[in-house]
Specification:
Growth Hormone, Chain: A; 10 helices; elongated
Amino acid sequence: MSKTEDAFDVPAFINSRPIGAVQYGIVVLCGLVMFLDGLDTQAISYMAPMISKEWGLSREVLGPIFSSALTGLMFGYLVLSPLSDRFGHRRLILFSTVTFGLLTLVTLVATNVRELMVLRFLTGIALGAAIPSTVALTTEYMPKRLRATFVLAIYCGSHRSRLRCLFISSCPSLSIFWSAPKRNRKASGGLFGGWIDRCQTKARSNS
């Protein structure tokens, strides 16, 4: 028997079977990643007035802050996303999601425009690496007849995040979470911000 006859045709197998629970789970998880991706990308737009007011920034300064994340997105799309073909889509999605989540938390302790721009650029790189991998992973696990439908479904997660940003930013009870990073640091003093403060105090005492 030849090697061609022994080879297992995965796409043909997926196309010949109905969609199962595992495939639906992949779509849901990829949709959640797209939701978080869109939420992180859009959040800075709604935080801009608060940052501008607290830091005394002009509108011209806000432009580079916004563009730094978009520049990082482009870099992540072009440079990091092709690595998924070598390391696997799942690994790159996990790495990118954890990375942009941690970088978003670190943004809470930014104290000036330069730090904010650098953090948003690095966050944008991770965001840009996650999106193509989620689309590729969804495409691989879906039958050909429904690929476009489910790719569109996970992209809906990104668009729903914009509505969620608008809702949260307009909710007075949750406005503390959408204030400028300096204020967020004070609000989270018992958690991440407090841990940063203790580390800095310990470093000063040892020096």
